[in-house]
Amino acid sequence: MEKPGKEGFREALMYYARTASSLEGSRSCLITKIALEILPRDKDIHAKIEQIFHRMEALLTDAVARGQASGIFSEKLTARAAGTFLLSVIQGIRVLGKVRYKESDLRSVVEMALRALI
What we know:
This protein is mainly α. The chain contains five helices and no strands.
């Protein structure tokens, strides 16, 4: 069963923190790696990577809007801006995990992101 609202977001963000902080060596999220290392030099894949990020942003925006409708998240937020913010947090967690931040270090980032939504 899917966890509602804030706990569901916490669990999802902590999944990214746990995964990113446990990857060994050069292993990491392929999309993040492409966006950071290859995308600036390869125009052929730019549209595909952009499409993936927009899809992720749309899913996060929809989840925030559902959280607002159920009273879990602040209605003062613009759902799309919050979706973009969460995508940025997720990608930041992935990058920080790659440079060997521990899951415990990233937990405070997750908690701060959740506080921004309420």
